[in-house]
Amino acid sequence: DPVARELTVQLADHLGVDAARVLVGPGSVGLLQQLALAYGGPGAEVAYGWPSFEAYPVFTGLSGATPVAVPLRRQTIDAGALAAALSPRTRLVLVANPNNPTGTALRAAELEALADALPDGCLLVVDEAYREFVSGADVPDAIELLGHRDDVAVLRTFSKAHGLAGLRVGHLVAHPDVVSAIGRVAPPFAVNAVAHVAAAASLAAADELAERVGRVVAERARIASALRRDGWGVPDAQANFVWLPAGDAAADLAVALERLGVVTRPFAGDGVRVTIGTPEEGDRFLAALATAATDDPSLAARWQLPTGARAAHATRWVERLDAVAARLRAHLARRHDGLTEPDPGGDERWDEGQVWAHLAEFGRYWLAQLDLVLDAQRDADRGGPSGGDRADVEPVPFGRTKADAGRIAAIADGRHRPPEDAHADVLRAIDALRARLLELTVDDWAAVGRHETLGELTVDDQLQHFHVGHYEEHADQLDALTVDR
Fold first, then answer.
1. Could you tell me whether strands 152-157 and 170-173 are parallel, antiparallel, or unpaired per DSSP bridges?
2. Which end of the chain is least crowded, N or C, by CB within 10 Å?
3. How far is it, in rounded angstroms, from Cα 7 to Cα 24?
4. SS3 131
5. How do residues 112-127 score in pLDDT, each as one tens digit?
């Protein structure tokens, strides 16, 4: 079937979209080539984060378009810098989410903001090859998040979680006009009959797929946790691999691991991608890394994220965040009554609804404020808008007080929402904060901001006052209001 009619209908039903919005192709790579042919060409620009999927510059060059590679920020696609790099000539923006090779992911607000920044005539392509492995509550399903737009296309594939890489079958979801434009440059009979049958069978085996993915995600979490316990900072992993930010030690590390019987994928100057396998393979990798680090004492100094005691410090914050998330989740099954005790020096007393409303609103706000402090320090370190040396830079003002009108209104407006809805917002905010903590560099941890009433605060101070400690404070309040303990 040259246009894969039956599989297209099955995919549309599976994804909950109209069949006119689905295009089947020879893997997401083949569809990327069609996108480049349809939208690229001389005079056009194609923007993407870098490092990312290696096919992006290849197909950009084949189409005759000009590549615009935007460096990652803390191992993650920098949505703000990518948006700033767009021009009237930009025809494609390619975003791997989760990113390959770093495994990190943009959160929902970042992806929406990037979509809002698109110039006329530009298509945002969200490459979700690893979507099935995503566990972060705030990592969006781009089809659900952006599916109403006519300037967004989403790529998926059967090559990763479905295990059909050798059969070359993928699909694109987009506005029918985009599907039509890309279909006009499709090679005839691009997806063979066996691939059609296999993809349909895999769609029907949803339980098996979920079990297989679950095993990979669990092993990924085990390996990442073990790396952090061993003193290696690694970013939040959302694909079927973990990323070792080894910097200019990447090539040497990959050779050392291979000599110890573990094959990985190096990206020279950036890091090493380690695919998740069985627990036995994971243990072999961890042992090999320990040996390689012993043989090369310079590895820790070349690592791009904190190592040793500094990595352990970041891990403790993440562990506290995970623990309070579990506490808040448990409160959904409990009954609460009464009013909280007032804060020291204050007079606010809240019922359960007000506590949940505040929990739901403050996470996003304070994460944006943390980023404000981090960005100001980064600009100063680079001689940017803030200018000067670190010691000469005034800490950036940030934050709000309890009298802030937006805070008061959010609590009043949200107090009657079901706790389950507020908790969903909390989970997404905690997920975004967790990812940020795992990507902070040593320099990031040294950033300082100035709060209106609390004065100069380090990142640790901010985490205690406004983030992790703040969640713990309100979990304590819910504990005190519980009537069915």
1. antiparallel
2. C
3. 8
4. helix
5. 999 999 999 999 999 9
